[in-house]
Amino acid sequence: MTTENFASQAEILKLARVLGTTPERLSYLEEVDAAELQAFREQVTDTLFDANLAVLERMAMASKLVPSPILAKIAEKVFGPLLCARIAGLVDVSRGVDVAKRLKPPFLADVAAELDPRRASAIITRIPLDTVVAVAGELVRREDWITVGRFVGHLPDPTVRRALAVIGDEALIRIAFVLDDKSRIDHVLGLLSEARFGGLLQVAAADEDLWAPVLDLLTHLSEKRVEQWSHLLDELPPALRERVEETLGQAS
């Protein structure tokens, strides 16, 4: 299996989510370039979010007339997570943040699952840290790795550090596999202690289902990071260590 297969598999998981189908039904796309799959996924997302745009813009304008505490209640009881996600990128940033702070973490997790973070990045980065961490914990509890992976690239380092504390080792490996911005992997892992990274490797070594995600993760580490943690890689069981050496050789 090549590193390109890993990238395409991850994109198929995310595309299946957008299309509301199973990854197995899209398995025939595994040989398609991952960048092309990502571009197609983003086109589909744009099409879905731009549908009924005029109506959504009018709703966003009308929301300015409603006090934030009342609007938060309407969002949860009337609009629901899908409609909130569609409107989020259309409202004033300060207004969106003020409403988001008043929503319960489980509901915000529902909204996050429907949201295109590219359209609401300014709001996401200003939501209080404790709220973001609570939502991350809820999404991890639901094993919604894809949603967490879509938001990592939009969060500042202090928030990511706090979120890492509520994300277990297996969860972190699975999230990294479907991260939207894979160029962030090296930086995010650099926020971990050496002991925590070693723990990731040991968790992967004990579960063959995690081998593909952890191998993909390693291909996105900088040469400096690989050299820094090479002694940890040397401690892996022989079978996994051989796969690591093979995968890193392909990626170099």
List keywords for this structure.
252 residues; mainly alpha; 3 domains; 70% helix; 0% strand
Explain what this protein looks like in three dimensions.
It is a single chain. This protein is mainly alpha-helical and 252 residues long. It has 3 domains: 48 residues; 116 residues, MgtE N-terminal fold (Alpha Horseshoe); 81 residues, no CATH class. 70% of the residues lie in helices and 0% in strands. The protein contains 17 helices and no strands. The two termini are 16 Å apart. The model has no long low-confidence stretch (mean pLDDT 92).
- The number of distinct structural domains comes to 3
Q: Which outline best applies?
A: globular
CATH fold descriptor of the largest domain: MgtE N-terminal fold
Largest sheet: none
Helices and strands, in order, run as HHHHHHHHHHHHHHHHH
How many helices? The count is 17
What's the CATH architecture name of the largest domain? Alpha Horseshoe
Radius of gyration: 20 Å
User: SS-based structural class?
Assistant: mainly alpha
Mean pLDDT, nearest integer? 92
Strand content: under 5%
- CATH level-1 class of the largest domain: Mainly Alpha
Helical amount among residues, as a percent range? 55-70%
N→C terminal distance? 16 Å
Helix-strand layout with pairing:
Layout: H1 3-19, H2 34-50, H3 53-62, H4 68-88, H5 93-100, H6 105-114, H7 121-124, H8 129-141, H9 145-151, H10 157-165, H11 169-177, H12 185-189, H13 194-205, H14 211-219, H15 223-228, H16 230-234, H17 238-251
Helix pairs in contact: 1-2, 4-5, 4-6, 6-8, 8-10, 9-11, 11-13, 11-14, 14-17
